[in-house]
## 1
Amino acid sequence: MCGIVGYIGSGRAYGILMDGLRRLEYRGYDSAGVALERDDGTLSVYKSSGKVADLEHLAEGKDTTGSLGIGHTRWATHGQPNDVNAHPQVSRGGRLALVHNGTIENYRVLKETLSQCGYSFASETDTEVLVQLIDYIQETNHCPLPEAVREALREVDGAYAIAVVERDQPDQMVVARKSSPLVIGVGEGETFVASDATPIVGHTDQVIYLHDNEMAVIRRGKPLEVQSLAGEARPSLDVQTLRLSVAQLEKGGYPTFMLKEIFEQPSTLTDCLRGRITADCRRVVLSGVVENREKFLRAHRIVIVACGTSWHAGLIGKRLIQEMCGIPVEVEYASEFRYGCPRISEDDVVVAISQSGETADTLAAIQLAREMGAFVYGICNVVGSSIPRNTHSGTYIHVGPEIGVASTKAFTGQVTVLVLLALCLAQIKGTLRPYEVEPVAKALQRMPATIKEVLRLAPAVEQLSRTFTYAHNFLYLGRGYNYPTALEGALKLKEISYIHAEGYPAAEMKHGPIALIDDEMPSVIIAPNDSLHDKVLSNVQQVKARGGRVVAVINSGDEAIKSLADYCLEIPEVPECLTPIVASVPLQLLAYYIAVNKGRNVDKPRNLAKSVTVE
Ligand code: F6R
C-alpha cells in the first residue's frame, strides 16, 4: 500500500525521490507526489493521480531543485485517488508538507475542532487533518516543528508513519511512526527515509529502524536524534546492515517480477533451507523453535493466523503439525480473528504467517493474542518488518524481496518453513524418530532441483494457457494437503487475470459446485500419487461425466488420470507432505500465462497492494 521516501543531503532530492517512488511502486498505489525544499527555504509540492510516470510528466519543466524532499505513493483509503487527495498534504498557506502511511482514526473529531479554529480542508484525507493539527499547535505554541509534531501525535489515534518538512527550514525533516514501518538510511553526509528499505538500497546499507512511538529529527550535518514521543532519547541508535542488493530489486532479464520470482524458486528454497537440516538429514534445527522448546512443549493447541496466500500456507501447516506432532491446530483468517471471540490462553502458541510482515490484520491478531497471554511465533519474509518485531520469536523464510504483487516464492518458502517447523517440533516432542525425519528432510534438500525440473513445464503451460484465455470461470480442486494448493491456485488466477476462480476440496464438489460444471468451466485438479489419489481420481471421473474439461496436475506416469483428463501437467513424486510445494508451481505458471495472454499487468494487478497496511 502507501509508500514513503525522503531525502536530505547534498544531492538533488528530486531524482532520488523519483527513483525511490519507482522502487515503491510494487506496493500498489493510485497517486503519487513529492514536496521539494530549495536551499532558500521555498517549498514546492507536485502531486498527481495515476502513476509515478504521470507525476514525472507533471513536474517536467518545473523547478525541481532542492536537496531536501519527501515523496509518497498513495493507495486511497479516505477519499478518491485524485490529485487533491494525493500526498504530500500541506498545511494552511502551504507552510508544512507531510506524507503519511496509515490511518488516523479520530480524524473526524480533530477536523471538527480545527474547523472551529478557522481551518478549512481541501482534501477528504485524514492526513490533511494531521498536517493542519501540527500547524495549529506550532502557531499556537510558537514552538519548533519537532515539538509540534510530538504534541500533535499525542492527540492522534491510529497508525502512522510520517515525514514532515517546513518552509524556511531547508535543513530539517521530522519523521515518526506508530504501527507502520519507517526506516532511516544513514549515508555519508546524507540521510534517507523510507517505508521499507527498497528505496534506500544502492545509496547506503546502514539503516536504523524506527520503533513504535518514536520520532527522529534529521538535521543536515548534525547527528541524528531519535527519541520516544514522550521525549526520551533512544540510548543506542542500533545501526543495522541491510542485506539487500539492487540486483534483487530488478527484473534480471525477465519480462516481469512475477516470472522472475517463479523461476527464482530453486534458489530461494536453497536460501530458505540453508543451515536448517543437518548433513545426515536426520535432524532439523529451527533456532526459534529450539530456543522456545518449553513454550512449544507446553502448547495444548497451536493457532495459526494469516491472510490470503499466507493463510493458505497456514492450512498446510495445520495438516503438517497435526500429522507430525499430534498437536491440535486451528487456522484463522487474521482479519476475522479479533471479531470471533477468540479463546486464547497462556497454553496456546499462536503462529503468525506473513510475507510482508506489515499486514494490519495480522498485526492486530498478534497484538490480541499477546494481550491474552499466548506465546506468538512469526513466519515472515521481510527482515526487520513489524511482525518480527511484535512477535516473541520466529523464523524468516529468506526468499528475498518479492516485488510481484501475487505471492509465489513466498508461498513455497512459507510452506517449506512450516515443514521444517513441524519436523523440528516433532523431534522435540518425540513424535518422529530421526529415521522418520530423514526421508522428508532428504526430499526437502532435493527440493531446489525438483522445482527446477517442474519449471521445465513452462513452455507446455504457456501453450496450454492459450486454450483457457477466454474462460470466464475456473474450478480448482484438491484434497488433503492439496486442498489449500487448490485455493492458492484459484487465488493466483483471479488476482492477476481477473477470471473468477474457486478453490474447493474435491469431494465437496458434489455438494454444490458440481452444478456449475459444463464444457465452458475448466477444472484444475491436483492429483498426485498420495493417500487420496484414488478418491481424487473419482472426482476427475465425476467432472468428465458431466462434460467438464480437466487439467490435472499428476505425478509422471499416472496412466489412470491421463486416460481421463484433457490435459496433464506431470510433476515429480515427493513425500505427500511436500506435494503442495511442487504442485503449486505449475499453477503459478498457468495463472501467469493466462494473465499475460489477457494483457494484464501481472506485477501490479488492479486494486491490489503488496502489503495491506489498513484494516
Ligand atoms: C496473494 C497475496 C495476498 C497476501 C496477503 C497477506 O498473492 O499476496 O493474498 O498473501 O495480503 O500478505 P502477507 O503475507 O504480506 O501478510
## 2
Amino acid sequence: MKLLEERIKQDGRVIGTEVLKVDNFLNHQVDPALMEAMGQEFARLFKDEKIDRILTVESSGIAPAVFTALALNVPMVFARKKQSLTLTDDNYVADVYSFTKQETNHIIVDKRFIQAGERILLIDDFLANGQAVQGMLEIAKAAQAEVVGAGIVIEKTFQKGRALLNEQGLKVESLARIQAFEDGKVIFAEA
Ligand code: 5GP
C-alpha cells in the first residue's frame, strides 16, 4: 500500500536492526484517515471471504481493526493483555511472547465475544515472529471458530512470522513488507 509505505518513509524511526517505531501515526498518536484507508484495503484483500468478526490484540491492533470492521460491517473484539491473571472459565486465554518487550503475556478474550462456527479475520499492527497471531489462532481454536486469514499492517519479512503462519495454511496479507533496516533506513520488499 503506497500511502502506508510513504508514511513509513516519512515518519518511521528505525531502532537498531530489527525494530521500527511508528508512534506518530499508529502506535501512540493515530492518523484516522490512514487507518480508514487501511481498513478499506483489508476489506478489499479479504473480499472473497465470508467474515463474521475481527479479532485483534490491544492496544496497537485496535485502530486498524476498528476500521476494518467498519468497512466489513462486522463486530470487532480485541484480546486484552495481562501479565498475571486469575483464570476463570469465562475467558479464552493464550500465552504470547512479546518480541519488543521480551516478556510473556497472557492474551484474554471473554467467551461471550467469540462464538463457535464464526469466521474470523485476525488483524495486527506488526508481524515479526508471529507470536501474537499464533496466540489469537489458539483462542479462535478454543472457541471453535474458523480463522479466514490475518491482515497485517507492517510485516518484517526477515523475521519468521510468515513462515510459521503459512506452515499452518493461514492466508496472510500485509499492507507494507519490510525486508531490512539498513543504516537507519527502511528497505521494502518487492511486491
Ligand atoms: P510477533 O508476535 O509477530 O513476534 O510480534 C508482533 C507484535 O510485536 C506486534 O503486535 C507488535 O506490537 C510488536 N512488534 C513487533 N515488531 C515490532 C516493531 O518493529 N515495531 C513495533 N512498534 N512493534 C513491533
